[in-house]
Amino acid sequence: MSQYSAILGTGASLPRRAVSNQELTAFLAAKGVETSAEWIETRTGIQQRYICEPDETNSDMASKAALQALKAAGVLPDQVDLIVLATSTPDQVFPSTACAVQAQIGATHAMAFDIQAVCSGFVYALTVADSMIRAGQARNALVIGSEVFSRLMDWQDRTTCVLFGDGAGAVYLQGSDEPGILGCKLHSDGTLGCILNTTGRIEGGKIVGDPFLRMDGQAVFRQAVSVLGNSALELFEALNFKLEDLDFLVPHQANVRILHSVAKKLKLPEERVIMTVAQHGNTSAASVPLALNHAVAQKQIKKGDNVLLQGVGGGFTWGSVLVRM
Ligand code: UT7
Prior knowledge:
The protein is of the alpha+beta class. It has helices at 21-30, 37-44, 58-73, 97-105, 121-134, 158-161, 217-239, 256-265, 277-280, 287-297; strands at residues 4-13, 17-20, 48-51, 82-86, 111-115, 140-148, 166-176, 181-188, 196-197, 201-203, 206-208, 214-215, 248-251, 306-313, 317-324. It is globular, with a radius of gyration of 19 Å. The structure holds oxa(dethia)-CoA.
């Protein structure tokens, strides 16, 4: 059994089509929905998002991201023990998207399952995979966040449809005697389910309830700033870790104003906060691994850096994972 699990490779995949604020605004204007590229960028920091074409699927993106993470680690698909995939927009009700990825990449020896914790999904999945590796249930894991949130958008609702995008990110995690993941802490508050949800379900051959994403943006904003700051401090205290030893924060990418507020609360210089929301929009469970992969690819995050990964979103759910790269 390994004392730690360590991230040995990262990967990402985005849909073919990037949609700028200008393009989205023109598309919405044709539907009679009033917004502006300027409002979107000033209030959220988003400049563009990627949107899947009808032939692009969650599992296709997840498989590409997974193969890239394996390649970065120099590992073959049939060496993978475990696939944990975080998503709220699976290919289908069942089987899981993780099983579809297993089949697509040829991870013939892996066990595979999905986790649903909305925008906190990746930190939940990473915590589960880390625990399973340290408990001896698996020697290694592919941990994936992959979403097609564009398919939950009500294109008449300007308070949500300008915010979200599609994409996938992945890490390859392996048992290690050297630190790796230093600690994880997850939280949920189901009484806040009403501030961010998609309540529709399939019943009797029909969708019952609302098939679109609904959000009380201001309530989510307030919660996000509060819980992200507290969650970081709580984990640091539990691990006796000093804030000044943190090299980078990789938080869920929902709104640049949330990221600025969290950085301020933690007294963290903004150059140490990875921000990709301008390019990707909010990709829910994919946002943290997409941002991590971006920073690794840019050689901003390097081996040995202490990195805090943070998720927050529907449930309400939130959590932090501190990792030495
Ligand atoms: O992934 C899970 C986590 N999600 C989040 O963290 C999202 C958190 N929330 C937010 O990021 C922000 O609350 C939003 C970006 C959703 C909204 O920004 P805001 O600054 O809180 O705007 P607001 O809701 O206070 O609305 C301000 C105004 C309103 O008009 P009035 O009532 O002042 O006339 C809205 O109707 O902006 C209006 N508005 C828009 N105007 C143009 C809302 N959406 C739009 C839009 N274009 N797309």
